[in-house]
Amino acid sequence: MLKIYNTLSNTIEEFKPKEDNKVKMYVCGPTVYDKAHLGHARCYITWDVLYRYLKFLGYDVTYCRNVTDVDDKILNKADNLKVEPKVVTDEFYASFINSMNALNVLKPDIEPRATKTIGEMIAMVKTLIEKGFAYAVDGDVYFRVEKYKKYGELSSQPIKELLKGARVETNDKKENPLDFALWKKDELHGFNSPWGLGRPGWHIECSAMSKKHLGETIDIHAGGADLAFPHHENERAQSECANDCVFSKYWMHNGFVTINKEKMSKSLNNFLTIDDVTKSYDGNAIRFFILTNHYRMPVEFNDVALNSAKTGVNRLLSAAIGFVDTKEYDDEAIQMFKEAMDNDLNTSKALAILFSLADKIKKNENAKTTQISANTLIMLSNVLGFNFEIVNKEISDEELFEQIKPLYAKFGIDEKINPKDALKEIISIRKQARDNKDWAKSDEIRDILLENKIQLKDSKEGTTWKAL
Prior knowledge:
By secondary structure, the chain is an alpha/beta fold.
């Protein structure tokens, strides 16, 4: 029985979708004005795992993740570059997709663009005005926060407390400093509307896209913890006032990625792009690094943690190299995996189940049970989104040399020697240690190779290697 933490209730709740076996899930997508960073990686890997796991449980899932392609940051960048906004959004949307592919993040079922949903946004704003929840002033439209009595519940901030902390703004148009923009006057980049040329506020974009593609009430609305307020709070307010019904049953938020204990973000200029990180670590290592931590907790980025993740995931996935899934599985291991994941997506515990399967494969005590363990490891690794194609990739001599270059000096090998011949020499040194029953040295050489993404496999015919 799946249980998840609902930010709205601040408790872990049993997951019960509105419609029996159907799940409608919305995740706030990227604002495409720059390259995606490691914080984005954490967000979209987290909800990718939820999507995969819900489907593994047998749910019929419709996953919608939007693309924000009209926004102040996009327009400012376009103006600075003296290009049309579409030039900016097309470039960085393509970059985002490349980053998601590198992380093996599945494409959502629906991926709407804000600029293609302007009509629905205008219709929702008009409804809010007609119901008295919004007001127009000189081409702008604002939401009346105090009319929505549940405002602040999602972020656990009562309106009175929010008012105390509200910034004093030089904006005489607003009735209340907490009121937020539904529509912004913009005569340069604007769209036609009943209030003149303008563009939507960020919050109304997601409300309109979610309603258009998933309906008035959804099961899960998810995103980063930084979106709980004001973005999700505002989405909830305007959607429930416009539609007279619950917007989302469950609200889920992933924790921050931090560097030196500070949240990674573009505004702090302390972010690493996914492109930067994938130069040193593949998508499996990044995913493993993220999943070893509970999704709601902050995670501290550092090279030590990522190097450990690289070693760990290679040890895990390489155990199944050479096996073809014969569709026979270890039911006990699957049940233990489900118990971990059903407990608010406890991925670190789920990974421990996978490592126990890898250990059984390594022991190879019985051919049939080894095969079943491999089948199960492959299936459950896929549920967590690991990519076996990376593990089984072919490698050129040039790539292999760069990968094992540190080993030449370590084992006294001339760098002019072909890297495959260099590996043969290292394996020969290890064989001599094994012949001398120096198991400590043998294991040390095996582990050093694994740290450099070379996996050894011993058999009666000898030892073979595989680049990871």
